[in-house]
């Protein structure tokens, strides 16, 4: 099957070749692709891959497909993977035209929850480029691509392709890695409207090739189980493929329950390393589960529809053997989790069968969104019956482990997870805590990550080696991060190394590794802060945001992958500096205190990011500025004003337990999402600020900045004369009174107080600035601007304090 999957991956390579030339050779993309493959493979002595060339050349030849089952299978997979094109476009005539150099619209372009819905919601277009740490910005108007740019992509792809092809059998997983790197921003087809942007191509060539291979491999295994391994020799299989009343597919959903309690209950020395280790353990657990299922089923990474945020979706064949693999995997991993963590974590795996009609664009009938919804419902039902397969273990007697009583200075339990029925020991050589084996492994994993992503480490060049030992072990597999691939099987972390079995995007950034360091490395008041943030209305977006005919498998997959890429990959570059990525040209970021964040990065740590949400912690100023940057970057990335974020920021003493930060930030996020009518807000320094007002907050902070200057002795600011801290505190007091929700006083009574406060200033020293300040303060809107002033005054005062008693 491997050769067939590779043919699925490469069947449209001719499109890149044709677009890389001025004009075209008169041949279709099938012939051009076969010619290109034949020449490259013969040059490196890989003629054994001729079957791939044959399938690529004939994948649009309907007559040949009537005789060759494998070719018919490729054509079927290609047709279903392009199901989003089953619209009024037809053969690209009438209101449509071919434009080889049309750019790719973002997969978010067609999303809208408005009623009535706009006819052509939010056209936005990504540039033609390879995937890199630089966050792509969606343009409102399409800018045509060029043959030169396609030629550059093809040349770079060819180098990587030859490297993995000549070093052994062409691995589908390794091929998938370089396809994602070079073809994620290439449109899969270029039939565009003559006027306007409705039905503009929004599925990348990478997403199309990946889904073609996933569908083809599922059909292959489904037919193989039904008719035996020689099915490809029998023509009756071609008739079988035309039978639309069957359900060859299952959509598999995986989810972890207990994640919140597992991550956020840490309260100990070395908390940041333990937090990072626990968060990444969950990532590894899901990847381990996915790899186990795919390996036992004989499938490849193309069948991973989505993985992130403690969830995954897989496309598998609707066969008894596949169901058996899923049942066994769920049972064995949950048994392992029970032994390791008792009732903290549980893996849920469910699935839903469906037929080919789900892949096709249609206004009526069963659509992809319906299948995803059914899987979600089954997952929720599964969570309501926790540990149903471990019931017998629940009633086994549990006794305190002798080590919890006998260890020197034993606290009676592990100092991180507080379990007392497991072996604990004093890890004085490392963290100087008494830990159980599981918590110590997680701490070591956090330290392993620190070694690969600390200061002066490239965030985009490390590897995850998979072996039999590693820093942390899941079942019988060991995992360890390293600067070089040390084993035959490895993942490339945040980069696309030829030879890697997978591209693994990770929220890897660590600008600080000990919360206690904030006293030395933070700015202003030494306060720790946490940000929790996620996409607004995501459930409704997938359920109602697309027109029925737009709810195709390809589009839902592309939207999910693109969101995950923002939170797991691009978030790193929004926070890092050149110390973490040599030669990096950071985007414009909010840098109110004029620090060297472009070089050093922000003093924050990504605790968790993926799917559609994030949790970061660090110095208060960096967290607040980063939150504003993330909102702006997400808007630029999606190009859709209806796709928004809401978040909550919590501040507290450095020694406050992490779970309290998580709880307070979560409560702040809930307040932001309560903002009506459309959420899209940030809870910051005690106020809910609509995201569209964040630019006004920045302007207000910048207005006050001219009255401040750096303190040459401390990492803080000081006021210029004639201002005093008392003046700022009085402004803060007025802002607090004006923003009280229960205060029904006439706001105008505050104007004399503001005027009196201004009259106390030395006009001679302020000169012209006095009138500017007076006019500005007295003209501020009581309902909107003074809420911003409340935030700004706290921000400024905290920037001026280095100690709690100042």
Instruction: List unreliable stretches of 5+ residues.
Output: none
User: Strand sequence of the main sheet, in spatial order?
Assistant: 17-18-16-19-20-21
Q: Report Rg.
A: 29 Å
What's the number of extended β-strand segments?
A: 23
The level of helicity is 40-55%
Supply the number of helical segments: 29
Keywords: Antiviral defense, ATP-binding, Endonuclease, Exonuclease, Hydrolase, Nuclease, Nucleotide-binding, Transferase
Organism: Thermosulfurimonas dismutans
GO molecular function, one term: ATP binding
Cofactor: a divalent metal cation
What report would you give on this structure?
Among the domains are: 2-113 and 124-171 and 206-241, no CATH class; 511-684, 2-Layer Sandwich (Alpha-Beta Plaits); 691-806, no CATH class. Strand 19, helix 23 and strand 20 form a beta-alpha-beta unit. It contains 29 helices and 23 strands. It starts with a helix and ends in a 6-residue tail after the last helix. Helix 2 (13-19) packs across helix 3 (29-43). A six-stranded mixed sheet has the order 17-18-16-19-20-21. The chain is globular, with a radius of gyration of 29 Å. The chain is of the alpha+beta class. 49% of the residues are buried.
Give the gist of this structure.
The chain is of the alpha+beta class. Helix content is 44%, strand content 14%.
Key features of this structure:
29 helices; single chain; globular; transferase activity; 23 strands; 806 residues; nucleotide-binding; 6-stranded mixed β-sheet; Alpha-Beta Plaits; alpha+beta; 5-stranded mixed β-sheet
């Amino acid at each position: 099957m491997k050769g067939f999957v590779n043919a699925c991956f490469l069947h449209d390579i001719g499109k890149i070749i044709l677009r890389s030339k001025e004009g075209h050779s008169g041949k279709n993309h099938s012939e051009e692709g076969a010619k290109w493959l034949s020449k490259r493979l013969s040059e490196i002595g890989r003629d054994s891959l001729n079957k791939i060339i044959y399938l690529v050349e004939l994948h649009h030849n309907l007559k040949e497909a009537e005789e060759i089952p494998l070719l018919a299978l490729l054509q079927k997979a290609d047709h279903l993977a392009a199901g989003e094109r089953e619209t009024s476009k037809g053969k690209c005539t009438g209101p449509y035209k071919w434009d080889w150099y049309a750019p790719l619209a973002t997969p978010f372009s067609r999303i809208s929850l408005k009623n009535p819905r706009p006819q052509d919601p939010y056209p936005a277009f990504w540039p033609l480029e390879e995937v890199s740490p630089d966050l792509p910005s969606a343009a409102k108007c399409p800018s045509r691509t060029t043959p030169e740019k396609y030629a550059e992509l093809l040349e770079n792809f060819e180098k990587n392709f030859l490297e993995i092809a000549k070093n052994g059998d062409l691995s589908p997983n390794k091929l998938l890695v370089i396809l994602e790197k070079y073809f994620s921003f290439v449109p899969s087809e270029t039939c565009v409207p003559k006027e306007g942007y409705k039905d503009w191509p929004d599925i990348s060539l990478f997403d199309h090739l990946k889904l073609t291979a996933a569908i083809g491999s599922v059909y292959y295994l489904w037919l193989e189980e039904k008719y035996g391994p020689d099915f490809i020799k029998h023509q009756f299989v071609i008739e079988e493929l035309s039978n639309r009343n069957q359900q060859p597919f299952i959509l598999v959903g995986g989810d972890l329950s207990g994640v919140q309690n597992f991550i956020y209950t840490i309260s100990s020395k070395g908390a940041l390393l333990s937090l990072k280790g626990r968060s990444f353990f969950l990532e590894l657990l899901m990847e381990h589960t996915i790899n186990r299922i795919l390996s036992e089923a004989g499938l490849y990474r193309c069948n991973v529809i989505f993985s992130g945020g403690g969830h995954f979706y897989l496309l598998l064949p609707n066969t008894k053997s596949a169901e058996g693999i899923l049942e066994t995997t769920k049972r064995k991993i949950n048994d392992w989790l029970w032994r390791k963590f008792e009732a903290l974590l549980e893996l849920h795996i469910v699935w839903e069968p469906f037929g080919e009609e789900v892949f096709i664009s249609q206004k009526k009938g069963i659509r992809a969104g319906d299948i995803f919804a059914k899987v979600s419902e089954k997952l929720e039902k599964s969570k309501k019956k926790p540990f149903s397969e471990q019931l017998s273990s629940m009633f086994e007697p549990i006794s305190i482990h002798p080590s919890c009583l006998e260890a020197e200075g034993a606290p009676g339990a592990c100092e991180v997870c507080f379990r007392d029925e497991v072996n604990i020991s004093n890890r004085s050589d490392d963290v100087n805590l008494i830990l159980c084996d599981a918590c110590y492994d997680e701490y070591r994993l956090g330290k392993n990550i620190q070694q690969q992503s600390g200061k002066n480490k490239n965030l985009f060049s490390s590897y995850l080696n998979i072996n039999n030992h590693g820093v942390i072990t899941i079942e019988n597999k060991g995992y360890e991060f390293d600067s070089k691939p040390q084993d035959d099987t490895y993942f490339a972390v945040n980069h696309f190394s030829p030879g890697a079995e997978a591209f693994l995007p990770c929220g890897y950034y660590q600008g600080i590794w000990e919360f206690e360091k904030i006293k030395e490395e933070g700015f202003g008041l030494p306060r720790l802060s946490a940000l929790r943030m996620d996409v607004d209305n995501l459930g409704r977006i997938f359920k109602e945001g697309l027109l029925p005919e737009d709810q195709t498998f390809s589009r839902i997959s592309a939207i999910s992958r693109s969101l995950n890429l923002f939170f797991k990959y691009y978030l790193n570059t929004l926070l890092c500096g050149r110390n973490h990525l040599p030669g990096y040209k950071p985007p414009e970021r909010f840098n109110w205190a004029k620090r060297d964040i472009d070089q050093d990065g922000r003093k924050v740590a990504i605790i968790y990011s993926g799917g559609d949400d994030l949790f970061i912690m660090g110095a208060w100023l960096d967290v607040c500025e980063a939150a504003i940057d993330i909102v702006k970057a997400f808007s630029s990335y999606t190009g859709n004003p209806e796709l928004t974020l809401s978040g909550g920021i919590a501040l507290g003493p450095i020694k406050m337990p992490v779970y309290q930060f998580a709880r307070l930030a979560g409560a702040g996020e809930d307040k932001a999402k309560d903002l009506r009518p459309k959420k899209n807000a940030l809870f910051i320094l005690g106020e809910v600020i609509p995201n569209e007002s964040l630019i006004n907050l920045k302007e207000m902070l910048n207005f006050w900045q001219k009255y401040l200057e750096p303190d040459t002795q401390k990492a803080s600011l000081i006021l210029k004369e004639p201002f005093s801290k008392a003046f700022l505190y009085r402004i803060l007091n007025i802002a607090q009174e004006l923003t009280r929700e229960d205060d029904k006083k006439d706001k105008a009574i505050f104007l004399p107080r503001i005027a009196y406060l201004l009259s106390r200033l030395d006009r001679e020293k302020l000169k012209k600035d006095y009138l500017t300040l007076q006019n500005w303060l007295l003209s501020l809107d009581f309902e909107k601007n003074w809420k911003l002033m409340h935030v700004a005054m706290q921000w400024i005062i905290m920037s001026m304090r280095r100690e709690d008693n100042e």
